């Protein structure tokens, strides 16, 4: 029916008519047809479509049809996401506000604070149906659940749909983040932990989609924009806060990783306030996870950031932050002296990998340690900034050696801690470990009761557990003798392990002394030899020095030449390797680009196929659900009627599952016809029976009715006569009373007229006086108001004149500013054109000069080659003439000509060696003499791809 309308206004009017008669589903379909027709949506403005959209969304909320609302919002977003973002924002905010109000109203009506359903996406499960069947809940509980749960599910689906619609559009980016924060608040208010996890995964997936989107499209969200980065950081920090409030610490840790990744994407660091909030939240997550070391590192980073960036930091705030950092560092458990034992434990990730991952969140190059953090806080002067009791605590745990009163003094200090009471338990455990290590350096055997007395606040079980942990980590050698009630400390003297002292140390253990005994003896013997005979060592040193000098002088030139030759070879090899690497990288890059292109095309086709398949399955499911719902509604409607109940009694569950709506309608029609025939038969039988009975009654009652009518006539006549006599008597008495009153009042008529005349004259005189006074005041008020109106008009004319003058001046200034900007733009364009022209001329001039120089160089090379060729021919001819002359001895072959070829710097194919200039060319050697320089040059290494050409040229062979 809705397709018959040609304008949206008519559709809205028709929908209102449907709503008035209670057909809200039909009204929703009517409005939905408007947004399905793209001709309507793109040809009308927001002033026409916005009221229709509000009405459409109100109906979707009232009927709890979120999927239909999503389709309408999708069409509205496509129309106004770039034209009028404000209208789209108003529509979405109004939709969510309406859903929140309805959900809150349902929550107030229900006695439940939250919905006791594990997953809102799947409310009705087989387990819940069985539980409801066997549970003892009453009808009130079930009605409250069925009333509140659908609204909570609808609100959750609305948040998810709006986030999906707005995830990659830059124009609605603030609205996207506002909706995400509203969804966080929903999860907290209704205690939806499962939905909060899904929301976190959805936001993480949206961030990945943003990274995969095309950056060339200006309407897409770009993560390189500072505004986008700040929006995402603020949203993740708020998300981290909600995760902490809901105690979802695993999700909180994932959120911190997301925040760190966003910071890595940004080219510059976020503002100090954001970083401080990040470090504060990260420290809380580390504390809840039990990573006390990284908790302290995060607080230290926060302290450094606050001290550097916050200018107005008061001494009280500085002391409070220093106290917290110092407590966090001191509360770090003492690390194992032998972490190599961790490698024997098979875990998914090694402790070093986990520590490096956590250090990355703090932007640290490597994982911190307890010792490094203590050094850092001492260097940052945090110990001196802390309060006096905490300074004493630092001295007790890290500097002083006092096992007898260590625990009592620490307990006295920790009992005064009120704000940072969370650190008391870790501090006590660290103190007990310190106590055990210090006692092991003083006593070899100690009573367990004495150890408990020294611990002051430790229980026997806790002490025994710490002793076992020390042995398990191979930090100490402890034997607990339960029979004697004592503890034995000691070390195996054959233990060759070297321990680094951690904390206050009084003396070395026996194994340390045994291990270092040989080293100490060697040092003492060496010092004794130097004292007894110092000249022997000095003479050996001088002799060794002279040998080194002679060796250096003998081989200096040769080593120098070999170093130079090696340097040249290395350079040529590097150039060759660089060339090959460059070619290989280019080939790999081309292959990778082609592979990525094929993968992207295949992925796109796969996604399109999956989208089509999902759409097909969704439509099939919707159609199946609609058919099932129609069947259920039909069966429910039939079961309310008598003939339907009879029909259902004849069919079992298997027959009902096989029937379709047409067969059910056919069975219903048959039962209805049969029921109607039976009813008509019963009506005919009953009609005959009633007819006979009524006829007999009428025959019997006719004489009785006639007798009763006669008796009624007599009673009515007597009653009328009695009432008539009473009426006549009352009228006679009334007339007599009125006559007497008329005579009595007639005697007072003259006095009445005289009184009324005097009263009228007095009132008329008073009226005339008041009238004169009123006219006088009226005249004065008229003059006063005329004067005020005159002054008011003058003032208004003056203000209007001044306003016009100001507007005129402002318009003139704007015109001058526009002219100035236009002139500047024109000059800038002319300068750009001139610069481009000059650049083109310079490029052309450079090209011409380069061509001329290249031609000149080519001519010079050809001339040099020709001169070299002629010179070689002349030398050959002269040598042959000399050898032909008689008496010059036996004939000798000329020595091979040595040609110096400089290393090739180009990456292309090698060129033939050019002849050297005449002044640098070596003279041919005389017969029978050696030319050392030529010999040295012939020993130079030549690359393999040049060796053939060089040997051919030197032996007089053909040149390539």
From TrEMBL:
Record protein name field: Eukaryotic translation initiation factor 3 subunit A
Annotated spans, Disordered: 603-628, 782-960
Assembly and binders: Component of the eukaryotic translation initiation factor 3 (eIF-3) complex.
Subcellular location: Cytoplasm
Naturally occurring in which organism (per UniProt): Bemisia tabaci (Sweetpotato whitefly)
Record flagged with keyword Nucleotide-binding: no
Pfam families attached to this UniProt entry: eIF3a_PCI_TPR-like (PF22591), PCI (PF01399)
Family designation: Belongs to the eIF-3 subunit A family.
TM region positions: none
Keyword Iron: no
Residue stretches making up the PCI domain: 318-494
GO biological process, one term: formation of cytoplasmic translation initiation complex
Domain of life: Eukaryota
